[in-house]
Give the backbone structure.
Amino acid sequence: MPAKPTKFDSEAFSVMRPFLIRPVFERATIEERNQPCMIPRHQHLKYEVIFVDRGLYHCRHNENDITLGRNWLLIIKPGDWHMDIFDGAPLRYLALGFSLQMASGMPAPIFRAGAPLEKQRFPIARTDFLPLFEKIRQEIKIGDFVSEHLQDALVAEFLFRMIRAIPRDVISAQYLATSHEASFQTNLFAIINESLTRKANVGEMASALGISESSLAHKCRKILHCSPAHLFQRVKMDRAMQMLKSTDMQIKEVSDYLGFENPFHFSRAFKKTFGKAPLDMKADATPPAI
């Protein structure tokens, strides 16, 4: 007999969105040097990306002396030792620092153990990265209540564009596995959100993902700890909750919009999910008359 799916945890639902790998922005600076000096050898605890905009950048990366020219990028990973060496020639480079958070709580390093250090540096197309860096810097200046979120989003785009340029054979197996899971979740949630006005059809969901129904069920249980039908129903109920709380739509309108046979069926499903009837939820969300 197949194992019964783990009970769906409504409190954890928000963290099971398709963001298994999330970079957290730390800092972004533009460094200009024209005097000889040195930054002493130090060990990095987080990721730092160096992008050379102008001149030659010299450093010692672990035990290797390297020089990078214009449009070259260096990834310094946690645990790496690094020392900057400035010879006095004009130099301009960008430095971006971030950490990686995994929804699973397990580490997923970008590089596999023993990957050659020379694979951590490579030339890139500046048009893919400079605009993102400038946007990050702009959000730092704006500094309003959404700036931190936009910074993390921009760093995420920077990260994944950067990883696209890394040879696949030096990327860690853990990172690839986590990335595949994130891709699966992204596509699955997109399909579900496009189908919320209809009844759940696991066959159609599997077909849209290009996998079998049994593979879809296995992946859902492994990654999201529920069946595809249960996930579909939960996303539908979340949408119903949003509609009841933030719109003027009546219960029957929400029920019809989300493809339920009748308001009674909708109310029963809603109460089973949230422990409260839609009518009570609607009453709670309605501001008192003045």
User: Anything to note?
Assistant: The chain has two domains: 21-102+125-164, 180-285. The beta strands are 21-33, 36-43, 47-54, 57-61, 64-68, 72-76, 81-87, 91-102, 121-123. The chain has nine helices and nine strands.
